[in-house]
Amino acid sequence: MFRSFTTFKLIRYAVAYVFITSGFMKLLNTDLANHFIGLGLPYPYILLNTVILLEIVCGILIMLNKSVRNAVIPLIAIMIAAIILTKVPTIHTSILQFAFNARLDIVMLILLIVLYNRNPN
């Protein structure tokens, strides 16, 4: 039996893939974890572990199409924080440099908003 891959399913799978792999990379890659810790946030280790947990768990929920609307909310917050903390500081270089550095974060943020608006639950 052939299962149809709708555009919405592909968006869900792509978003889930990005966040699940991002969470595991923060967990397994010390350079990535150290970069996060070096952002100057309060309680960096607690925040790092919270972000890792949210990215993996919410990514799995999105992949399984369970509580998608609730799962995207913390991921939207993570993406907004990522843009503000790591991309906005490059805006002083040039708007084009900022746009280039933030391109993937902005695309993920848009896809998360699409998932939020598409799911009634």
From TrEMBL:
Q: Does the keyword Cell membrane apply?
A: yes
Against InterPro entries, the record matches this protein to: DoxX (IPR032808), DoxX-like_oxidoreductase (IPR051907)
Pfam families (alphabetical): DoxX (PF07681)
Q: State the superkingdom.
A: Bacteria
Its cellular-component GO annotations read: plasma membrane
UniProtKB keywords: Cell membrane, Membrane, Transmembrane, Transmembrane helix
Which chain regions cross the lipid bilayer? Answer: 10-28, 43-64, 71-89, 95-116
Q: Where located?
A: Cell membrane
Major subcellular site: membrane
Specify the protein's topology with respect to the membrane.
Answer: Multi-pass membrane protein
Supply the PANTHER family for this chain.
INNER MEMBRANE PROTEIN YPHA-RELATED, OXIDOREDUCTASE CATD-RELATED
* Family per record: Belongs to the DoxX family.
Its recorded name reads DoxX family protein
Organism (species): Bacillus salipaludis
